[in-house]
Design brief:
The chain is an alpha/beta fold. It is built from nine helices and eight strands. The protein is globular.
């Protein structure tokens, strides 16, 4: 498969992407992952990106597109790919369209994960993360709780609520998404590529996406 995953913070993009990779061997690609990989590998593009990241600046779109172009041509993408959280803006979507055309890659479709706001708030405000940098296991106090004393079931370190997962922070993240990323829904709708899936259960969502793929 060759798809893009769109969805607000907490929509379950990462979980859905992981389940889809297990289905047919497609690789999950996120901007953060390819930037970190390029930097770690010490490629020319990675060194350029590191200069921006070390200064705390955003990596320019042009450089991200160069790194994305190199990533999409790696052997493991031959079976397919899932772009997780990329593109984030209309300019990135326009550049990605040109890139895919240049590489003769055709998308199957663009997945829009539709999740009610109250569900997102509930998912993220009840999430807890192990504070051990070597573990960082993720829990949910309702559906997948840590130990009764709040410690990690794997390494016994304390689990915490991240600063960006308080209700105030989540509302800010959703506002940013709605202003910058949500317009992509209209962009891909005009392209005739958009398919929207209600995403209340990751397994059900994946089953619906497989069905849309004809699997």
């Amino acid at each position: 498969m060759r798809i893009i995953l769109l969805g607000a913070p907490g929509a379950g993009k990462g979980t859905v992407a992981k389940l889809l990779t297990e289905f047919d061997g497609s690789v999950q690609i996120s901007t953060g992952d390819i930037l970190r990989s390029a930097v770690k590998a010490g490629t020319a593009l990675g060194r350029k990106a590191k200069e921006y990241m070390d200064r705390g600046d955003l990596v320019p779109d042009a450089l991200i597109m160069d790194i994305m172009e190199a990533r999409l041509q790696e052997p493991d993408c031959r079976n397919g790919f899932i772009l997780d959280g990329f593109p984030r803006t209309i300019p990135q979507a326009e550049e990605l369209k040109k890139l895919l055309a240049r590489l003769s890659i055709r998308l199957d479709f663009v997945v829009n994960l539709d999740v009610p706001r109250e569900v997102i708030l509930d998912r993220l405000t009840t999430r807890r993360t192990c504070c051990n940098p070597a573990c960082q296991a993720i829990y949910n106090v309702k559906s997948n709780p840590p130990n009764a004393d709040g410690t990690c079931t794997l390494c016994s370190h304390e689990t915490i609520q991240r600063d960006d997962e308080t209700e105030e922070a989540i509302n800010n993240r959703l506002e940013t998404y709605n202003s910058k990323t949500a317009p992509l829904i209209g962009f891909y709708e005009k392209e005739g590529l958009l398919k929207t899936f209600l995403s209340l259960s990751s397994k059900d969502t994946v089953a619906d996406i497989k069905k849309a793929l004809g699997a």
